[in-house]
Every structure is written in C-alpha cells, then in structure tokens.
Specification:
five-stranded mixed beta sheet; single chain; YbaK protein; about 180 residues; four-stranded antiparallel beta sheet; alpha+beta
Length: about 180
Amino acid sequence: MTAWSVLGTLEAVPALDRPDLLGDAVAHALKSLDPADANLVGVAEIDPTLADTAAFCEAYGSPLDGSANCVVVAGRRGEETRYAACLVLATTRADVNGLVRKRLNARKASFAPMDDAVALTGMEYGGITPVGLPEGWPVLVDTAVAAAAAVVIGSGVRHSKLALPGELVARLPGAEVIEGLGR
C-alpha cells in the first residue's frame, strides 16, 4: 500500500511527472524539495467540478478522513493583516478564532475572502494547497494531519489532487504542527 491509495479509485503518478496537473507555485515548490521527498507526492487528474472535498470523496471513493482541507486565514491587528494557511482533516474545522488568531497575534481572524486567497497564493479556488504558498506564511498543520499515513490535498488547480504522507506535510516550508487546530 502506498500513500497514494488514499485517492480511492484514481490512478496516481509522481507529481513531478505531470506538471500540467500542478499549479505553477506547486510545481516550483515540489522541484525545490529533496528528490526523495518529491517522489512521495502523487498526483491524479479529476473532474474539476468534483474538486470540493465531499463531492471528490463520494465520486472517487476516497475516505473523508483521508482528505485535508487547506484554508487561508487573514488575521488583523490595527492596519496590519497577516496571512496563514491552515490544514485540517476534512472531518474537522480549523479553530480560526482561537488558536489561529493567537498564533497570528491578531485581534480578529477570519477566512480570507476568496479573491484575496486566489490572488495571494496564485492558486485556483478549490485547489489551494500548503505546497507552494508565499514565502513567510505560516502553514499551521493539525496533529491529525501530520500523523496520517496519507492525505489528499489540493494541487493548486481544480483538475487534480495530490496525495502524500502526513509527515511530509509537517515538514513543508513554514509548517508548524499544532495540537487541537482541527476541532
């Protein structure tokens, strides 16, 4: 069994073998990884209308608890806005107003507006992933994601998904594993 079997009925290939299935920032980030780590990342093409987690899992037989959702959060204090990405299992929700707000040292934290998230990441909505985010952004990873044998995440575009070990997610640039992030 490989980490890619979490993709259900989909056939995965090494992600770097199919750059056409990756967002530009994702392809660049994967090329920057140690080759042994990059080889742990699989990609599979999907119907872009099935990119949303519930529809994806139902259509392709991928377990809901094997999918991790990446959300972009904006934290504000005064005139300053700080961004972070949160990665939690699809069966949970990110503790935006508690742990994330405190980590960003913000008075208020909320999901970033879709247009902002897309513009800042250079990724398609529904395909935003912790791989290839802007430099300096914290990538807050729930412990359940880091402990998972494998997770399905976005690829930067809506027409594919990535599969990789949770421990690799926890080692991505900017990653911080946080207990209780997903509730």
